[in-house]
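Example record

One chain of 174 residues, shown exactly as stored in the release files.
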Amino acid sequence: MTRLAVRALLAAVFWPSLFFFWFLGPFVFLLLSTTSSEVCPRLETRVEFLAAANGTIPMLAVQSLVYTIPVLCLVLWEQLLPEPARARQIVTCVKLFAVTVVLGALWAYGSSLMCDGYGQSFFSPMWQWTSYLPMVGIAINVPLYVLTFSLGRAYSMREDVPASDAAHLDQNMS
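Predicted structure tokens for this chain:
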């Protein structure tokens, strides 16, 4: 009974965090993590500009911690119900997640460095390459989301109902 309660608790944490943090969160954090257009015209020196960009670092750290919740749920589920095939998929999930965190941080930090108030080049043009990182992030996030969703679904299902019979059970209950 305790194992079932822990699985249910993990599912109760996993699904809302997956929906709210992974699917809706990027829009909120995008608005909060980059230097706003109202701040840019007030930045006149390189020091002020760098200070504003560095101000995004705490938000990036919080964002990364919040996004970790669904991945941690998968790891805990694997500890609770060890299965070698799923363990390899979870390792893949963790690696993809680590890459997306690094790309997201580089993009958010780089995009705040590109905002230069008066069209002056405060920093190296290399930071402008970070504007391509969202496309790379999407290419990595899509398989990550699909894998995480499928793993969450597999762990959330009851053990006494095989995956192929679950669809028939759902249709019969409707």
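Notes: Residues 2-158 form one domain.
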